[in-house]
Amino acid sequence: MDDYLQVNRANWNARVPIHVSSAFYDVDGFKAGRSRLREFEVEEVGEVAGRRLVHLQCHFGLDTLSWARLGAEVTGLDFSDPAVEQARKIAGECGIPARFVTADVYDAPEALGETYDIVYTGIGALVWLPDLTRWAETVAALLKPGGFLYVAEFHPFADILDSETGTTVTYDYFHRGPHIWEVPYTYTGAEPLEHRTTMEFRHGLGEIVSAVAAAGLRVEFLHEHDHTLFRRFATLVEDGGVYRSPGEAPGFPLMFSLRASADGAPPPAADPATPSPAPTE
Description:
There is one protein chain. By secondary structure, the chain is α/β, with parallel strands linked by helices. The protein is about 25% helix and about 25% strand. It is built from 8 helices and 12 strands. The protein has a 7-stranded mixed sheet, sandwiched between helices. The chain has a 3-stranded antiparallel sheet with strand order 9-11-10, with no helix packed on it. It is globular, with a radius of gyration of 19 Å.
């Protein structure tokens, strides 16, 4: 458990050159003007022009810079030095003003030294964090009064299904981890990774929402989506650039999005009359 940060950083450092050169990320397409943001994200976040936005766990910054192209004043934070170096390089080549900082997400308030109108956490980020209570408190510390958190993520329900068909429950929804994986390739293609081990943490939807609320943020919406961004299961079909269950099959949640605002009030105090949950093995 204590090694998760070092293990995962080595893995993500190894992914950077593979991802930058991959068709999946299409850096050349981004430089030509293509946005990396999903349509529902832009709609749900709303107008960002003139607002200060920080992207936590930003990788090499294409989503961050896409928000800048919409007018936001952006900062990206990631724990990988090679990723941050690439983000700065791409920003410079595109002439996009942006700030990128290397730090662990839990150290963000000290590393950044400022607050924001919007804290954005993109897809595939929460699985790398062991403590969502601490994460939500970090988010709250980064937000100005009246600002908001926006999360777009893969739905945790899909994580428990078999990887081939997505029809059989294979993993325990309530087993938080760490889950240790040895995977020779990243999701962008067949080029082998130098560092293959990851330590990941499964978080249920209730845990995510409860952590956000306990940090004093007011949940504005939680939307569940019946599509995802790649063919996660062989049974999914492409539909307008996203993937969902075929028409005759029952739908199930594949992604979710959440928005929660900072009203300037302190987090609610615990109710002393409410017993603490019993410890679990």
